[in-house]
Amino acid sequence: MVWQDIVIFTIMILFSYALVPQVYLGFKKKKGFVNLQTSLITFIGMYILSFIYFTLNLYFSAIIGIVTGTLWFILFLQRIIYVKA
User: I need a labelling partner for 46 at 20 to 30 A (CA). Which of 7, 13, 28, 72 fits?
Assistant: First the structure.
């Protein structure tokens, strides 16, 4: 394990923590608050970054990157589902 993995992992934990209330609010209010383009680009980018982290053997960063990308994917789905409803 390298120090960069720990730093990236810690920062991305904070990013994920910051997204949880937004995801919860979207489910509670049944609204897609985040712009479709923003959530689409961000979740695809997070999955690509996670793949890159895996290839660099930064496993903690890769796993939390997938978690953060999935939270962005949920925001993307909320925007699609709740705006049409």
Answer: 28
* H/E run at residue 9: helix 3-29
pTM of the model: 0.92
CB 58 within 8 A of CB 5: yes
59, 8 Cβ separation under 8 angstroms: no
Cα gap 28→24, rounded to integer Å:
6
Residue 5 one-letter amino acid: D
Q: How many CB atoms lie within 10 A of CB 7?
A: 11
State which amino acid sits at residue 26: G
Mean pLDDT of the chain: 94
Spatial contact of 59 and 5, defined as CB atoms under 8 Å apart: yes
